[in-house]
Q: What sequence folds into this?
């Protein structure tokens, strides 16, 4: 099917958000573009049960200017690889507490495979190519989250 | 040019951004120049395999040329998502 | 991580629903169970641009009693294959119009791969194993949607 | 036992459900018995590869035994999702 030109919605914000409220806006929009399938992925702050008193907060640093460009570029790449409707990427920065949503991607396509693959691709690229850094605070101190080799390796799936 | 630091690179060097007057031809030349300044720079740049660099807000390499560049940023591998 | 025992929420209804409202309820629930990743998949009624006047409506028939059991069984299978938090499956029956949500699945897990695989698995099994039948109405007449061989083939991925 | 029909099987046979008194040993025997009744049954059951069967609300096969079974349903391949 011919879907409408993909519309890319990139949001980088410190405010908390409700993934459901975004999905409520995204879905009719995707439907009007001819989508038969909508995927959302939401990342949540997980507690650290091993740390004394657990995770007190997470602080996310980012690179204003580059962040928006990198996310837009990743979304554009997804739209050129698959036949997509609208694409949404939202990522928070600043202070977060356990169980809060960190980020969300939403994709839409005529048939489900495209939206699934695109959401998976967006997550893989976002993890290793968008300039965000997480720092975890516990009663024991603070530590920057280390990148995993597996995150970089995941990109080879898409080459 | 503006040089920016993020995450633990920012913490080690002790500032998020500075203006650097340099004639460095490549990112690697700039790293050597900064490392020669003070220990905190040398420490931050001691293991380049643990660092990433962006040139004018695009991910780049340490051998990238700096001609006409306005902004270079150093940071650890990203951990978003 | 040890996630709480998965809780399976199966809904078969003729009422319209808002996928976002369900995601708003599901996400905090998944977060409390220790999830770091939440996936939602929503299926939408697509118009039939080839038909005179397009699709006027879709009617979904189902097999009350068996439907709920089949969906519960599919969700249980997913929960036993992957380490999941709560699982939601909602499927409508009765009359629907283009662009309306037909069904939704939501999955949650500590790390993203489990929730992604489980959502994909749920969709494949739901398509070929849950007793729903779609009939499309246009100005040209009405026709039952034919099952695709590819739907049955998709199940072989999971064996 | 109760015999149920869905989608175009229901439309061809002309009813959603009926009570059938039968001593059929298997689903296949029941299909032969129903097909012998009237053309609309024979037509609905003419291509078994286009049909699926559930026995007591579980997907099953045409050679499944019917001893103790309370409900058999015939329908085309499912198209949900």
A:
């Amino acid at each position: 099917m011919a879907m409408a030109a993909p519309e890319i919605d990139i949001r980088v914000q410190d405010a908390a958000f409700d993934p459901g409220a975004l999905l409520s806006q995204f879905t009719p929009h995707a439907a009007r573009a001819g989508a038969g399938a909508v995927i959302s992925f939401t990342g949540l702050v997980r507690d650290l049960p091993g740390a004394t008193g657990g995770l007190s907060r997470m602080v996310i640093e980012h690179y204003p200017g580059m962040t928006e460009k990198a996310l837009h570029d990743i979304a554009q790449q997804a739209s050129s690889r698959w036949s997509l409707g609208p694409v949404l990427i939202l990522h928070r920065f600043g202070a977060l507490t356990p169980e809060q949503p960190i980020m969300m991607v939403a994709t839409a396509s005529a048939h489900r495979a495209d939206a699934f693959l695109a959401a998976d691709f967006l997550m893989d690229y976002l993890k290793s190519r968008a300039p965000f850094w997480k720092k975890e605070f516990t009663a024991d101190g603070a530590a920057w989250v280390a990148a995993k080799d597996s995150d970089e390796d995941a990109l080879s799936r898409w080459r | 040019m503006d040089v920016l630091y993020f995450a633990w690179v920012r913490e080690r060097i002790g500032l998020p951004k500075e203006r650097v007057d340099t004639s460095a031809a490549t990112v690697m030349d700039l790293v050597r120049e900064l490392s020669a300044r003070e220990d905190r720079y040398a420490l931050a740049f001691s293991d380049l395999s643990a660092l990433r660099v962006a040139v004018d807000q695009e991910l780049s390499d340490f051998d990238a040329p700096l001609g006409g560049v306005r902004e270079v940023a150093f940071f650890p591998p990203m951990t978003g998502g």
Notes: The domain at 8-156 of chain C is CATH 3.90.1170.40 (Aldehyde Oxidoreductase; domain 3).
